[in-house]
Amino acid sequence: MHSGLAAVVEGLPYVLQGIGVTLTVVGGALAMGLAFGLLLAVVQVYGRTWLRRLAAVYVWFFRGIPLLVLLFLFYFGVLAALEVELSPFMVSIIVLGLISSAYQAQILRGAILSVPDGQMKAARAIGMSDLRAITFIILPQALRLAIPGWSNEYTVIMKDSAVTYALGVAELMARTNHVASRTYQHLWLYLMVGFIYLLLTWLGTQALRILEERVAISGYTR
Amino acid sequence: MTPPIPILRLADIHKSYAGQPVLKGVSLEIERGDIKVIIGPSGSGKSTLLHCINFLVSFEKGRVWLWGKEIDPANKPELYAYRQKVGMIFQDFNLFDHLTAIDNIQIGLVRVKKIAKRAARERALAELARVGLSEHAHKYPAELSGGQKQRVSIARALAMDPEVMLLDEPTSALDPELIGEVHAVIRDLAAGGMTMALVTHEIGFASALANEILFMENGVILEQGPPATILSQAKLDRTREFCAKIAHLHTGGRKPV
Q1: A19-173 — its CATH code?
Q2: Is the CB of B95 inside 8 Å of chain A's CB atoms?
Q3: Which residues contact residue A57 at a Cβ distance below 8 angstroms, ignoring those fewer than 6 apart?
Q4: What is the pLDDT of residue A218?
């Protein structure tokens, strides 16, 4: 029989081995979400009508279905139907990335829209193409404005990554479950993993706050 | 003798916003070295006209030629090349907020003209010197005064080697004590022979530079002619009335709200 503290001391190194998996899932999903989200946001602001509608449907779809449903749908449904083999780890990154891209699209769209019209006009006036103007004038400003919203998205994806244990991804939550089912010290172990997540979300938002300060434009307030 | 080909020619520009006509058939020719000053009450379409010239706003009808060659805005490379030839100065400066003064000028050289970074930097510094802002090269727009911002925006436009400059009320957003420094830069441009179309209410400043004043109202050019004629011997009552009003405004009369 384990005491609570003994279970934590014994289980912690084992659980922490999952930190790399958690961070990779979160990092991968956020990076994928940023790439797709950026594309979606630009399309939603500057795209043709039918492209804008398509982007809106995409956002509507991935914002409206629970993560667990999408994980099972892709892993047990879509992969089987397509006869493709992918590890639960990869599926988790992809599904979280798709969902995150829908949310990041909303964050970035708002940020793009809050860059004043005159910036685009001035870029066009010196002969820039719209694509160059978006790349070199609009996005550098929009991405700075998006950091606070993005920080929120980081905490959401960090917490949601725990759900991927359901596919058997050996991340923090799955490893905590293993220890708990062996030692029966659920209270202590889930408190422990809760604190690990708390630390990870706190560290991440602090890092993003520092980033926000470092890239702030001198004298600029909006 | 055939008349010279104008740098810029506009024919019959029509533009409406949400069904409301703003320009009702404006035609204009600007020859090399011309300084055309456009005056008129707010809402008369002056600013919209300047924005139509380089296709920053689209218009329903009308044609534009540069050196006798018609510009097709659907042909993007041609449009982008044309816009470099037509420098635009905005009422509210529109400096790129995330870039320092020098980078505001350099970015067009590097990203549009594809000039190597070092050469672009030198050119940008030269343009900053030309507007008297060398010592502010590394300041961000938010750290500059309105007058300095407008001078940087002029330097940014000049770096693209424009053949014509369009200035849309370049000093109307400035505190009175900052207007002089921008006027000085515009005067230097005029002295250097730059072709310009200038929308302004600063009638004294404008008439000293202009070779022609155009009075616009309700989306048409009502009357045009040399400054002396427009300001003191205009044919239309409406022109005389307007000129008297803005002259009064700029000779220390009480500012109407």
Answers
A1: 1.10.3720.10
A2: yes
A3: none
A4: 85
Any alpha helices (H) in A76-116, and if so which ranges?
79-82, 88-113
For residue B217, the one-letter residue type is E
Residues of A in Cβ contact (< 8 Å) with B81:
127
Q: Minimal Cα–Cα distance from A143 to chain B, Å?
A: 11
pLDDT beneath 70: ranges in chain B: 1-2, 249-257
Q: What is the DSSP letter of A166?
A: G
Q: Are strands B35-39 and B195-199 parallel, antiparallel or unpaired?
A: parallel
The answer, for B157 touching chain A at a CB cutoff of 8 Å, is yes
Tell me, what's the pLDDT at A220? 82
- Reply yes or no on whether the pLDDT at A214 is more than 90: yes
pTM for the structure as a whole? 0.90
Q: State percent of chain A over pLDDT 90.
A: 93
Between strands B61-66 and B220-225, the pairing is: unpaired
Domain extents for chain A? 19-173
Nearest to B107 among A136, A217, A219 (CB): A136
Chain A partners within 8 Å of B112 (Cβ): 126-128, 132
Residues whose CB is less than 8 angstroms from the CB of residue B206 and which lie 6 or more positions away in sequence, other chains included: B37, B39, B198, B200, B213, B227
Backbone φ/ψ region at B68: left (φ over 0), alpha (ψ -120 to 50), beta: left
Closest CA to B210 of B23, B39, B12: B39
Rg value, chain B, Cα: 18
- Tokens for A147, please give them: 């950091």
pLDDT tens figures, B34-84: 999 999 998 899 999 999 999 999 999 999 999 999 999 999 999 999 999
ipTM exceeding cut-off 0.90 for this assembly: yes
Q: How many CB atoms lie within 10 A of CB B29?
A: 16
Amino acid (1-letter code) at residue A83: E
C-alpha closest to that of A98 among A60, A129, A128, A130: A60
Please determine, for residue A126, whether its predicted confidence score (pLDDT) is greater than 90. yes
Residue A222's pLDDT is 60
pLDDT tens digits, A16-25: 999 999 999 9
Selecting from B80, B94, B107 the residue whose C-beta is nearest the C-beta of A118 gives B94
Q: Is A72 exposed, middle or buried (0-12, 13-18, 19+ CB in 10 A)?
A: middle
Cα–Cα nearest to B197, from B178, B216, B180: B216
Task: Delineate the domains of chain B, giving CATH numbers in brackets.
Answer: 8-73+84-249 (3.40.50.300)
What the block records as the tokens of B36 is 């055309």
Tell me if chain A has a CB within 8 Å of the CB of B140.
yes
Nearest to A132 among B87, B111, B153 (CB): B111
Q: How does strand B212-217 pair with strand B195-199?
A: unpaired
